[in-house]
């Protein structure tokens, strides 16, 4: 059961009855890292994995992963247990490799979208061609005007992170579209 | 839907990921105190308002979040090219030649 504030209200009015599984994940540990590309080696060492440099690609090691959002921006996902270790490791390199590491765990809610019609369902609000998003990678984009980050975990399995104030809108639209898929539209 | 090539992502993506950000290659005066009111007005407000190829800034706001520059024909809405911020203004004659 998800107890994050606001989520219950968003979920209360919508029930999903379609071919695509829709679910909301518990809060994840999520950081935004901004650092000059000249200091990547130090940051990679602090995080314990090699930060990818192609925008939209992702690297993972154990419970940690990093998605490259821009030339100097990464999104780090980790387990709750990693949070303090990651903060300490980056604090230790701060003087040699200045950066900004911001805890944004609470900013977004993660929705799981799974099933062989997942791409079709996402196309209701997302203008990019998701067939071109490789499994394992992710991308920041829009879903019906709300900024989102979409991860592709398998061919038919996606996670979409939505800023929490847009959750009711996005969740509602996904569920309506799921019902339409069920009805054969 | 308008498709725009982001020079940082090196991908051609739909317009809803982008935001327009005004005319490109307008440098902020190094010492605004030395400017007359007219010169300062021109810097702030007076723009080319081109009919045809226009050098302009865009931002990949719902993507890599970078600002970059583009040459877009304001009549046809066709993008002649996009290039990274800080790069020199591409030669228009060459761009137009490439369109033929
Ligand atoms: Zn981009």
Supply the key terms.
heterodimer, A: 185 residues, alpha+beta, Gyrase A, domain 2, Alpha-Beta Plaits, five-stranded antiparallel beta sheet, 10 strands, elongated, B: 100 residues, Folate-binding fold, four-stranded antiparallel beta sheet, two-stranded antiparallel ribbon, 6 strands, globular, binds zinc ion
Write the H/E string of chain B, N to C. EEEHEEEH
Let me know the largest β-sheet of chain A: 5 strands, antiparallel
DSSP helix fraction of chain A: 25-40%
How many individual β-strands of chain B? 6
- Class by SSE composition of chain A: alpha+beta
| Unreliable spans of chain B | none
Description of the structure:
The complex is a heterodimer of chains A (185) and B (100). Chain A is of the alpha+beta class and 185 residues long. Chain A folds into 2 domains: 7-27 and 107-183, Probable tRNA modification gtpase trme, domain 1 (Gyrase A, domain 2), CATH 3.30.1360.120; 29-103, Heterotetrameric sarcosine oxidase (Alpha-Beta Plaits, 2-Layer Sandwich). Chain A contains 5 helices and 10 strands. Chain A has helices at residues 7-12, 40-47, 83-93, 118-122, 167-183; strands at 21-24, 29-35, 58-61, 64-70, 73-78, 99-103, 108-114, 138-143, 146-154, 157-163. In chain A, the strands form 2 sheets. A 5-stranded antiparallel sheet of chain A has the order 1-7-10-9-8, with helices on one face. In chain A, strands 3-4-5-2-6 form a 5-stranded antiparallel sheet, covered by helices on one side. Chain A is elongated, with a radius of gyration of 17 Å. Chain B is an alpha+beta fold and 100 residues long. Chain B has one domain (3-26, 36-99): Folate-binding fold (2-Layer Sandwich), CATH 3.30.2270. Helices cover 17% and strands 33% of the residues of chain B. Chain B has helices at residues 37-45, 92-99, and strands at residues 3-6, 11-14, 19-23, 53-59, 67-73, 79-84. In chain B, the strands form 2 sheets. A 4-stranded antiparallel sheet of chain B has the order 3-4-5-6, covered by helices on one side. In chain B, strands 1-2 form a two-stranded antiparallel sheet. In chain B, strand 4 and strand 5 (67-73) form a beta hairpin. Chain B is globular and about 45 Å long. Chain A binds chain B through residues 55-56, 69-71, 73, 127-128, 139-142, 145, 147, and chain B through 1, 8-11, 13-17, 61-66. The structure holds zinc ion (ZN). The site of zinc ion has 7 residues of chain B, from loops.
